[in-house]
Design goal:
Largest sheet: 3 strands, antiparallel
Number of domains: 2
Order of helices and strands: HEEEHEHE
Number of helices: 3
Strand order of the largest sheet: 2-1-5
Number of strands: 5
Oligomer: single chain
Low-confidence stretches: none
Length: 132
């Protein structure tokens, strides 16, 4: 299934403990799957009245490395940061200096509290799936 999709990234290691949920839909054989991998979302808070621009940058470098080490020591492979439009250009350049990459793919988010429902039409019966 993965090769058929033709995406330009490597097949993830689905045996990794970071894959905390796996659901497979079968119709005499597996035809769809969703695997959910644990990652982190970064939030950066700062007192804008503190320090000079250089002090802020040096402090951020130290804090950034401490946060990176902490997440890595807990077994995470990556983290994500969504920037508000008003700081994307300026702060995004700084993140890229620290080896962050701007994602090519659009980002979507969804609360997990509500069940799946097609908001355009009544929900047809959803086939059974297995999860691990």
């Amino acid at each position: 299934m993965f090769r058929q999709q033709g995406f330009e990234y490597e097949l993830p290691d689905f045996d990794s403990p970071l894959f905390m949920s796996k659901a497979v839909l079968e119709d005499d054989r597996p035809v769809m799957a969703i695997a959910s991998r644990l990652t982190a979302e970064e939030y950066f808070l700062m007192d804008r009245n503190w320090g000079t621009p250089e002090q802020k940058w040096q402090a951020f470098l130290h804090l950034h490395e401490a946060a990176r080490k902490d997440l890595y020591s807990k077994g995470l492979d990556d983290c994500y940061c969504w920037l508000p439009p008003q700081v994307e250009k300026s702060f995004g350049r700084r993140l890229m200096r620290l080896d962050w990459a701007k994602n090519k793919w659009p980002s979507f988010t969804r609360s997990l509290k509500e069940p799946t429902e097609d908001l355009r039409k009544p929900c047809a019966s959803i086939p059974e799936y297995s999860s691990t």
